[in-house]
Write a structure and sequence with these properties.
The chain is an alpha+beta fold. The chain has one domain (3-132). The protein is built from six helices and four strands; from the N terminus they run ααββααββαα. A hairpin with a 2-residue loop joins β1 (28-36) and β2 (39-47). It is elongated, with a radius of gyration of 19 Å. The model has no long low-confidence stretch (mean pLDDT 86).
């Protein structure tokens, strides 16, 4: 079975599960999913420099970071946010998260991408037929 046959929500959940150990201990960052043909391609975490600085000094909110329960809450919110994604199939989903007062806060941004070459081909199908003649 290919990933294209698995619902996007399940793919996001599986990717977040893969990143779980990296997310534990973080207090803020951005999770990025590149979407192609409605399937997750690349995914990862952008660590915030301030977060790394706080960890080194042992001060600030990053000293504790997220627990397994926080990560589970983040995963649930991230999957539920997918209901706001519309009909596009290529683009990027970014989740900005921060741990504040012991609670995970999450915001999501959806970015759709289109390819002009595909649009031009659809608008001018005769151009392709002329080459064959």
């Amino acid at each position: 079975m290919s990933w294209e046959m698995v619902p996007l929500a399940r793919q996001v959940d599986a990717a977040l599960h893969e990143m779980e150990d990296e997310l534990k201990g973080m207090s803020a960052g951005t999770i990025v999913f590149q979407i192609r043909n409605d399937a997750v391609g690349k995914f990862g975490i952008r660590h915030l420099p301030l977060d790394c600085e706080d960890k080194q000094t042992g001060n600030g909110p990053a000293a504790g970071g997220m627990t397994a329960d926080h990560v589970a809450s983040l995963k649930k919110m991230a999957v539920e946010a997918l209901v706001h994604k519309r009909s596009w199939t290529h683009g990027e989903i970014t989740y900005d998260f921060v741990l504040k007062q012991g609670k995970v806060n999450l915001s999501v941004q959806f970015e759709s991408n289109y390819n002009m070459a595909n649009l031009m081909f659809r608008l001018n199908p005769k151009r392709h037929n002329r080459r064959e003649a």
